[in-house]
């Protein structure tokens, strides 16, 4: 057996697979959202990685495939820091008792393709059934299904009985649905982080405060204690994992930031003290403005329970305020949508909201979804730019997204890791 393996290896060494070279002709090229676009350009991609970017439309070398985007603007693939691939909007909360993980995986595969076709070449999946996000991550990485690069947290870690724990059902149903994602006390919360790390999480997601869409009439205040969040963050960071904290109330945001979380997700009621704490700790804000668009579209239609509708009404007048204040204070505002609260594939509509509600320029909004997101991922030398050495993640659109970000709502071509998405 050992010998046979060695023989195979030597065969491979003797006849290496020929490098696959793809040449992309771009009519206009944005290599980095902070720089002006350049004119006609040629991008060379070898085995999924960008190897050259030159001015002009250079003919492809022999054996290379040409992707002709000479009538389009080509730019780095977009990054969404907050999606839930395995969910769709509008379902009844009781579906959780009926739909198995196998179903969630198939829904996730459908949404991975839709998300990539919408121009998103990397996403963070922040809360899916235990192993579903990891299976989707592997399936898109190995080309089993079309989709973006996925970084997955697995389920969110929650307090027992808090947002993110199963709620609204009979106790025996709750026990049957539990997925070991809850904890109480710093020690057990640290242990959960280690368990999630062992299971394959790329980062840790916590529900620092109450949430709008859970069946709980306990508001949107802080759920974890300060000590629990500190234990979670310290343990995660020691393991090389970042922490994303779902947080709505001002004091909950402040406490999560003080604990050192890398990003506040939603951040709805962030006040000046909360934003000062974020600035001091270096936490980013991922405002997920599209989540509120999705919620607004469903309000009053009998989709949400009365408990949820009450919480929705508290939040809708606040949408965009935290993002605007954070931006003014110099807190990084990073692109993320909460897709699943609205239909997957509409993710790019967040860009116009960042411009209209948060006061960003189009270039800034695009940077939040490319270079800014790459920085928060800790992948700023891998994704977010079109430059030699970077993963070949690029998209093409008509029009000029640096003038009107809505141009990115209709994406004509998507390449993830050198492969076209169809
Ligand atoms: Zn979410």
Overview of this protein structure:
This protein has 422 residues and is an alpha/beta fold. It is 35% helix and 20% strand. It is built from 14 helices and 16 strands. A 7-stranded mixed beta sheet has the order 3-2-1-4-14-15-16, with no helix packed on it. It has a 4-stranded parallel beta sheet with strand order 10-11-12-13. It has a 3-stranded parallel beta sheet with strand order 5-6-7, with helices on both faces. Strand 10, helix 6 and strand 11 form a beta-alpha-beta unit. Helix 6 packs parallel to helix 7 and helix 7 runs parallel beside helix 8. The radius of gyration is 22 Å and the shape is globular. 52% of the residues are buried. About 2% of the residues have low confidence. The structure holds zinc ion. The site of zinc ion has 5 residues, from loops.
According to DSSP, the number of beta strands is 16
Bound molecules: zinc ion
**Unreliable runs, pLDDT <50, ≥5 residues?**
5-11
Major sheet = 7 strands, mixed
Q: Averaged pLDDT, please? A: 93
* Helix/strand structural class: alpha/beta
Q: Widest sheet: strand order? A: 3-2-1-4-14-15-16
Shape: globular
What's the number of helices? 14
N- to C-terminal distance: 40 Å
Order of helices and strands: HEEEEEHEHEEHEHEHEHEHEHHHHHHEEE
